[in-house]
Design brief:
29% helix, alpha+beta, binds N-oxalylglycine, Jelly Rolls, binds nickel (II) ion, 8-stranded mixed β-sheet, single chain
């Protein structure tokens, strides 16, 4: 098995951030190179309209009697999550001015001098703070991007000493966005249940009170050689689900052995199903592999909000989704997050460890 890079080596290696290398006009060092420059797969969705489904959350979340349009939209949602594991959410109720402000404070943070950003720097062993991912195992490439990871919900999980003080509005905007995302996550949990003909509160009863939210701000610098690196390596998310706000395109979803780019839509949020929800739905909903491409000219910002089951909770397929025709595909898992990250650091998926 591959070794983890010695901490000191990794610390030195990762202390110069991608954004600094780009400002210094450097090409990607060897440890970032993960592709041979001949990847014809980058733009397999050459059609002008990407088929990533668009779902109107407002339409499917109304508590009034379901109209035919709502029923059709719910079927579309179920189908999207069973095949893509992802969709673009519109009608989600978060004002576009708040989405703009989130993109703005994220961009402003990364534009600051290194010294300001390093006030909240993390070590390579830590998850929370500014920097890169924890160092992957030896032989695994590094991502061509910089991040801030922050626990944002519940209140007790927050480490405010790691929340940026500049730009000044960062904290207030993130607080407000977190509360909006929490509400949206709850609405979406109900909608997911309804689409499977389950009691609408069933996922919330299991996660709701104790669910946690982690925010990951991703800054994808331009790259002289986008054909050699990736902004974010292929992975699935460990969350129940993830809600991503992006500015420019770059995120790709793997489906039918092809990559599909999620198109730009300033008002939409990208919903990505995570491994935990694939397990809870006994595999009916899929946790998709996704990645982020680097771009020659265009930098990119995204903010991923991970809606996670409580850490100590045992998670398994719902009994009402298992019967003779639909045998149980997954075991009950506890602390799957630890297993997930062990595999993540090797560039692998972990969900097979939960299969029966
Ligand atoms: C992630 C992720 C997508 C993006 O942070 O897990 O997949 O568009 N982000 O940055
Ligand atoms: Ni992801």
């Amino acid at each position: 098995m591959a070794e983890v890079l010695p901490a000191e080596e990794a610390e030195i290696l990762l202390s110069k951030r991608v954004q600094e290398m780009v400002l210094d006009g450097e090409e990607p060092p060897a440890l970032y190179i993960c592709r041979d420059g001949k990847d014809t797969d980058d733009h397999s969705d050459s059609s002008t309209v990407s088929p990533v489904p668009v779902i109107d959350i407002g339409l499917v979340s109304s508590s009034a009697t379901l109209t035919d349009i709502c029923i059709l939209e719910l079927e579309k949602l179920r189908s999207a999550l069973s095949s893509w594991g992802c969709f673009q959410a519109i009608g989600h109720g978060i004002p576009s001015s708040l989405l703009d402000e989130m993109r703005k404070v994220a961009k402003e943070f990364f534009k600051q001098p290194v010294a300001e950003k390093k006030k909240i720097a993390k070590t390579v062993a830590e998850f929370e703070g500014y920097g890169a991912d924890p160092a992957p195992e030896e032989g695994q490439p590094l991502d061509w991007s910089d991040r801030i990871v922050l626990e944002v919900y519940p209140q007790d999980n927050k480490n405010l000493n790691l929340w940026p003080e500049k730009p000044e509005s960062f904290r207030d905007i993130l607080e407000e966005y977190t509360m909006r995302i929490k509400m949206l996550a709850e609405v979406t949990s109900r909608v997911l249940a309804k689409s499977l003909n389950l009691h609408q509160d069933c996922f919330l009863d299991e996660l709701g009170d104790q669910a946690t939210i982690t925010a990951r701000f991703n800054y994808y610098s331009c790259c002289q050689r986008p054909d050699l690196v990736l902004g974010l390596k292929p992975h699935s998310d460990v969350s129940a689900f993830t809600i991503v706000l992006q500015d420019e395109p770059g995120l790709q979803i793997r489906k039918d052995d092809r990559w599909f780019t999620v198109p730009k839509n300033p008002d939409a949020l990208v919903f990505i199903l995570g491994d935990h929800m694939e397990i809870m739905t006994n595999g009916i909903f899929k946790s998709p592999v996704h990645r982020v491409l680097s771009n020659l000219q265009m930098e990119r910002i995204s903010i991923a909000m991970f809606y996670n089951p409580p850490a100590d909770k045992e998670i398994g397929p719902r009994d009402d989704l298992v019967d003779e025709e639909n045998p149980r595909l997954f075991k009950k898992v506890k602390d799957y997050v630890t297993t997930y990250f062990q595999y993540y650091q090797r560039g692998q998926r972990a969900i097979h460890t939960a299969q029966v």
